[in-house]
Amino acid sequence: MGANSGRRGRPWNRLKAEVYARRSTCCRCRQAIDYTRPYRDPLTGKVDSLSKSVDHYPHPLETHPHLAEDPANLAAAHLGCNLSAGMKGATSTLGETTEEW
Ligand SMILES: [Zn+2]
Question: Number of structural domains, the chain?
């Protein structure tokens, strides 16, 4: 995966770190998130749906694009929960979770 959308150069990594630092439970299923879990399983290389991700919550990105980088509208969610929540339209939410673990 290379160039993903328009987030380059924006303080997205900082926003993510801020959201993760809250150590909150998943905004979708309310279960605890294991923040030490890698995005990809180091053995299989498969994306781990129980790993952390930043979700646009409570306002989805599709309807509130202006809140895309508003910390008040960002919450931690399991990757799988985030994905299934964003399934019906937006495919762009995941591109940013790629490289930096
Ligand atoms: Zn969850």
Answer: 1
Model's pTM, two decimal places?
0.74
Rounded to the nearest angstrom, the distance between the alpha carbon of 17 and the centre of ligand 1 is 18
Position 3 in a domain: no
The answer to the question of residue 92 being in a domain is: no
pLDDT of 85: 83
CA 11–ligand 1 middle distance (angstroms): 25
The predicted structure's pLDDT at residue 87: 63
Domain that holds residue 43: 9-85
Residue 62 has pLDDT above 80, yes or no: yes
What does the pLDDT read at residue 3? 46
Q: Is the pLDDT of residue 1 over 70?
A: no
Q: Are the C-beta atoms of residues 56 and 19 closer than 8 Å to each other?
A: no
Residue 98 included in any domain: no
CA 80 – ligand 1 centroid, Å: 7
Residue 17: what are its φ and ψ, rounded to 5°?
A: -60, -40
How far is ligand 1, taken at its centre, from the CA of residue 10, in Å?
26
Provide, for the chain, the percentages of residues in helix, strand and coil under a 3-state DSSP scheme, each rounded to the nearest 5. Answer: 30, 10, 60
